[in-house]
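TA notes. Do not distribute before section.
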Amino acid sequence: MNSYLESNSAFRQGENRDMITKPVFIVYGVSGSGKTTIGSALAKKMGVPFYDADDFHPESNIQKMAKGFPLNDTDRAPWLQDLANNISKWSSDQGAVLACSALKVSYRNILASVVPEAIKWIFLKGSYELIFERMQSRKDHFFTSEMLQSQFDALEVWKDGISVDIDQEIQRIVEEIESKLKMQKSEIGVIGLGVMGKSLATNILSKGFRLSVFNRHLAGKEEDIAKNFVSEHSNIPQGFDDLSLFVASLAQPRTILMMVNAGPAVDVVIEQLLPLLDENDCVIDGGNSHYKDTLTREAKLRKKGILYVGAGISGGEEGALYGPSIMPGGSKKGYENCGPFLEAIAAKDEKGNPCCSYISPDGAGHFVKMVHNGIEYAEMQLLAEIYHFLRFHLGNTPDAIHEIFTSWRSNSKDSYLLEITADILQKKEGEDFLIDKILDKAGQKGTGGWSTQAALTYGIPVSTISEAVMTRCLSAKKEERIEASKVYARSFSTVKTDPSIVEMLEQAYYAASLVNHAIGFDLMKQAAKENKWELNFSEIARIWTRGCIIRSDLMENLTLFFEDSNNTPLLMLSEVVETLDKSIDALTTVVSRGIGMKCPLPVLSAAANYLLNYTSETMSANMLQAQRDYFGAHTYQRVDKEEGVYFHTDWKNI
């Protein structure tokens, strides 16, 4: 296959993954204010390295100051840039405390030019008289007291960070710094420290935001969750199990991210929050809520002046920690408030843009996340079917299948799910493959089923998604399946794998994946039409290129395909038509051969049937219409009459 769809290999797992940054506390002020002494004491207390900016001066600067000449901005520029680069290194390691005069705002801007989110500013303030007295008592230091006035003249104090009066004992100064860092109003709060909540909270901290966290306290079940989270992080989040204190710790207008179980728990938290909130506060539901629930909640809170954002978040625990894909909908004004936080923690696409974008009003964000999960269900089942076919009907070992899947990854078909499936096939427990020890009984949490229900509501066929959901449901009937296998005692065929069938499987896999994605986008398109949402499908595909579970080479291509064809069905785009024209025979051959060998291929079959029907000018539905008219007088239309005119026949009078 030579089409562009098959040749783009932009996706690779781990590209542009954000590093977790640790805070670098910059203690600044004029010379003689105690930056080194206080900075080293603070570093010791926090358990992080201490650095003195003076140690990074080039020799030329040191010699100039030793002769009594002050440095100019030209002298300082390379020194400050070198410090900025080191700050980036320290923040990606343990964090640090840096003592640096940083007298001017322009100097601080250079220091913050690489990782601004990591820096916490601490200003040591004191009178000229106090510092002059201290300067006179210093020995063997290149900075003379006569230069002090020039420092005060150059000093530009700003509001960022905290300031501490130096006219007190060093221990008291360090304690005051710690206290003020804790007492600063938090910029954002997280409710719920389960797996996803804890990872997102850690991600928020890594971007340098002041954070408060809340988790309920239930004796014997959930004890000291918030307290323990605070103790695990040196960048000092505030932790609460009292909701009113948590809300009071947030700067206004408040931004609160709820990470609680979808359903009634969300409403309980909202009811508890409402008396504590003020107009224009923003509440984000980051769980997998049903989009209709989000629509109802957004309308309810809007009447009270509260901004409500329903944000789908995909990426699992690792994605939440390093950068997920985020799909916020609901209040547009709410997104304007919370967008900077969500965009900062989101994964970044190949151009460095956040994989987060406002979707549309109402429950649009959670609807798009629901469809994402529906596509995910089918993609997972698709790979599971192909594994099963290769393993038990074509006689391949897990190692051999790993090699096959790995080769597909390097052939412009890479995806996160393909990658992890290949990895799973290498995992052993002793001498045995772990996959062989896992019970073949799967469940579904609701979002896959929701997609199927929504498809019925909007009249859109979601064959691959619904079949994936039904296959999970059937797998849950494990005991009954065991009995059935004994009753029917069927045998199945096994043949030796040859390169041609592996090549056909690769083409069938990609064709089925294309059909599955087309089905998902068609569902979103119809929902957008009926709900008056303005969905940008190129943008949705873009935010699904990193961070989320269904990120793939294909998704990179869809971003481009939809740029100028937002309203065109995916299966009608020329690049897709070219690929499917070449692979439809492989898809149908694999399905027929697999079924003939008694290998169940539900999603591959669903994709093949969908594509065959979609590309057929004439379907079998004329017989359905005749049947309905026969037994229920439902009427029908005729191909030889004007559309919209309906007929009824007395079928018994032949």
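Switch to the second chain here.
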Amino acid sequence: MTFSIKTRQESIEKLKHGELDLLIIGGGITGAGVALQASAAGMKTGLIEMQDFAEGTSSRSTKLVHGGIRYLKNFDVEVVADTVQERAVVQAIAPHIPKPDPMLLPIYDEPKATFNMFSVKVAMDLYDRLANVIGTKYENYTLTKEEVLEREPQLKSEGLQGGGVYLDFRNNDARLVIENIKQASQDGGLMVSKVKAVGFIFNGEGKITGVKAKDLLTDEIFEINAKVIINTTGPWSDKVRGLDTAKKLIPQMRPTKGVHLVVDSSKLFVPQPTYFDTGKHDGRMVFVVPREKKTYFGTTDTDYTGDYEHPTVTQEDVDYLLEIVNNRYPQANVTIADIEASWAGLRPLISENGGSDYNGGNNGKVSDKSFDQVIDIVSKYQKQEVSRYDVENVLNHLEDSLAESKENPSAVSRGSLLERSEDGLLTLSGGKITDYRKMAEGALKEIQRILKEEFDRTFQLIDSKTYPVSGGRINPANVETELETLAKNGIEKGLTKEEAEYLAHLYGSNVTKVFGKIDETKPVAGLSLAETIALHYALENEMALTPADYLVRRTNHILFMRDTLDEVKQGVIAEMSNYYTWSDEQKEIYTNELNELIAESDLSLLKEGAK
């Protein structure tokens, strides 16, 4: 199987002709999950993504499949049970991607602390029971203050009471997306990036029957016809819904921005992921995570109303995170000059809890604040001071008296919502990466019903709990051993142990195809043999169309390999230019795009201002 620019051209031609059973708008983790299950069920499936796959949000997470232990502070057992159980499913279908990595939770004696030593043990015991890890090597345990400091000597000792350690998983978010996309393509789905939905097509009854799409590589506008269309665009969900200009739109989404900063592990050393209150009594928590000889930390969780395509790290974000990290690790003295890379991403949060899979709706009680808002807006409507739309907007954003404060973006529901508009557009929004398969499964049941009842098309859905993503043909109970065995093939062909193991963990069972390129490949100038075969695989099998696609989302070069990036990028640009026969102008455009991305990740402008 290939998944290349040639595949893209062939898929676009097929999208132009005939009618799909299902068209998916949005190629992040939600759309990728829907695409995999729909294609595997035999539906004629297409997916369009206006950027690269995972570029908008799904490559900008905290890069953990997090269990949500903090919800247990309020005994929100259902949330955590769903999360940890689904996490196990994801690990089973993509065993080379989420990896167990126990989390340290230091406990400080502070006002408004999430946990104390007693409550954290109660929460961890319940968490283990929900995660079904009691009696395994991943069962939780507590540490004394001295044991915590022995493990992380840079941690602040003042007020430290001890700590807890519980199971969590690290994740490669963008790789999870591309492996779902590749599997969908292998099963017959038409998956294309850099194609944007610019409008809908309607029949005489006002029902949506297709999409007007624009190929952003050629500027060609073409039409795609489909029986069912689903919007899985995350933070862009309201914008896509707004393409249907016949009706006024009541916003559903409340995107928040999360920021992460990367430093060398020699500057801030943590032996394992660490999770703690900010110490600012603002109800937020921060992760500090070791990864590939680096340490990254975040996040900020602030409301966002700017450019969705290019959320950026601001000075305020940096100041906030540095203050927290330097307070918790006073010996580190991290400054903006130490930051090697950064990323900012949007979370597709739903602005109310009513559609939440986690919270199960609410009890119908409205907070005093919302009650007063309703009285006020209705009074104004009676005086013709506001429109009916204004009233509907207030009514659609009522605050549950039991819900967490809407003033705190960290507290907004992480639940998902599936709904269908009057003209037929399905929208699947909200959720977390951990829940992507479950969200897709729910959407597929509704799509299956629509195709049967309205189009007399019958499909048998797969058991998505046991259907592996591309590269996932590995026994989930024996991942490390199997990856080591796969890596030996690369070592025998001349790669170093470190190179072969890195590629095995990156590509899973597909690494045999990557190693298969060794005998016929000469290293490109500026690239090792391992890097050259990885790049060729990305061009031929992962639809990497630009240097940024490869260096950010097919690999983690820009984020976690800054030391070698400047040398590697020249080889990548040269080889991609060769492969795609770019003109000098095209090569310059992609080079400038990459350099701007690197400068943004480096925080070059902020660093200049700090001098």
